[in-house]
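### Sample
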Amino acid sequence: MIIGAGMGIAFTRIIVKPLKKVSEVMKKAEEGDLTQKIDYPFSDEIGQTSDAIDSMLNRVNGFTKQIAQTSQQIGSFTEQLNESVSQTSSASEHIAQNVQEIAEGADHQVLLVDQAVESLNQMVQDTNVLITTQVASVNEAVTNASHKSTEGNKAIEFAETQMQSIHRVISNLEETIQGLNRRSGEIAQIMDLMKDIGEQTNLLALNATIEAARAGDRGRSYMVVANEVRKLAEQSSHSADKIGNLIHAIQDEASEAVQSMQRTKNEVIAGGNAVGDAGQLFEGIKESVDEVAIHIGKVISSVNQMTIDAEAIQNTVQSVNHSAILSSSRSQNISAATEEQLASMEVISASTGELTQMAADLRSQLSYFKV
């Protein structure tokens, strides 16, 4: 009885407790905690099982981390993928149509393998022509867009240079007009001085006339000269008034010209800023076009691989000409693979936003696990 109790205790320590530990670790794993380990110290069957479970949990932990990182990358690549898929949606529809025709003809291929081979040959040829045409058209459009954006950017740079030149010319012209305005002011001061001299000369001539009148016959000749001097002084004063009025008019027009130049200068500055903004937009367009070109290159590689796959399908169908049943089975596999490819393309084309949401949901679900 004692021996039996001892064996029971030993059995509990050797078997039950390790199994209980295994159960606890698996329970934690079920609850999302993937960080637990059994760490069984022996190498018996339980130890081997424990090591296998630890290794499995470690692998699942690594996979979970990797899936989380991948889901994050999926979310960041979705926007880029959307533009690339939109460029290839038309070609994908044509490809899907041709593949669907292959799938629909799979049953008929069981009885008429030779006819199916001929039809498949024609399909591959048409698909290659269609893909080549579509990809070439898209690639040409992207290339033209890149060239146009480059030319537009150069035109913007030239316009910006011209705006800067206009700004410098207007600034120089503004300085010239301001200098003219200053010179006009100086001339006005000189004309005021000439007017004062004329008035003083007129006053002196008037005094000389009075003195000549007092002198009688002896002052008559002086009176004639004094009258002529007075007339010249009056004419000089009138001319000075006219010139002064003209100078004031020139100053007013010069002031208006300076204000107009300032407004034009401000408009040139605003135009230069607008040209600069347009240049930045063109640069952004060019970067987007270059990015599309990169995605187009990836699409071309995928299309080439798809063409290779289609040729492999063709060779496979030709190689199974001796067995109608096997040919039908392989045709069904081809149809299923093609439908799956079409479904994937349609899902990618129609629900890029849904893919982003799925990535977010995946990250949310992965947060359940403790890694």
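Helices lie at 2-30, 45-104, 106-111, 113-215, 220-319, 324-350, 352-366. This sample (Methyl-accepting chemotaxis protein) is used throughout the tutorial notebook.
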